[in-house]
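User: Can you help me understand a structure? I only have the sequence.
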Amino acid sequence: MTDSASAADLRGDLDLALRLAQAADEQSLPRFDAADLEVSRKADRSHVTDADLATERAIRAVLAAERPADGILGEEYGTEGSAHRQWIIDPIDGTANFLRGVPLWGTMIALAIDGVPQVGVVSMPALGRRWWAASGLGSWTGTPEAPRALRVSSVDDLEDASVSFQSIAQWADAGKLDDLTRLAERVWRDRAYGDIYAYMLLAEGRIDMVAEFDVKEYDIAAAVPIVREAGGRMTSYDGVETLSALSALATNGVLHDAFLELLHPSD
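Assistant: Let's start by predicting it. Here is the structure, written out as tokens:
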């Protein structure tokens, strides 16, 4: 994915994205593990809570006030406005964890310019953690007052790689179970850390690859700048640099081609 905006242009957008994350945390965290959490199902049978809806509304309200000309794509309330500059929002990634009281969930906020994610913020308030990046400005975690730069691992051999595959059912539904078996047999360690947290572990250099299927733009957009600015690479499962392929393959960059070859031996 190529850059189409300067770092100076993006600094203000990144500052806004961090403020959006704070507004989101103020909605979501008080509802985490709440006894009166309201849970329903959407048309696709996935869960949605009152916290998902309130969190996205809070983000949209700030954007309406501060970036009225920008477009928005959100998981819960759809698309509106321009696609040139589009904020891509997943108010609570990991809703299944959220409603069961498991702290591995977070808000994902990205700004895509002409379809390329240039700014990304991930906030996991139940863990007290936040990650952020913008093209040319690096990838960071911690707090804005005390940031720590992120860097992917330097592992360069598949036999030494630690990977996250998200879930067996997900790979089976995609018709890729044989690929998953081949992957597990080749790498050092395989685990299903799940959802956005796995991508943040990759950006921190804790693991070396993440792959998943049945993902929408809002499931992965915020991770792209964070992984990329940390030195990693993120494509579709087939190696295409796009948000719309319904799959994702993120690596430390060094091993990306090797993983593609392993997962597509007959291509």
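Now, to help you interpret it: The chain has two domains: 7-149, 158-263. The first strand starts at residue 39 and ends at 41. Let me know which part you'd like to focus on.
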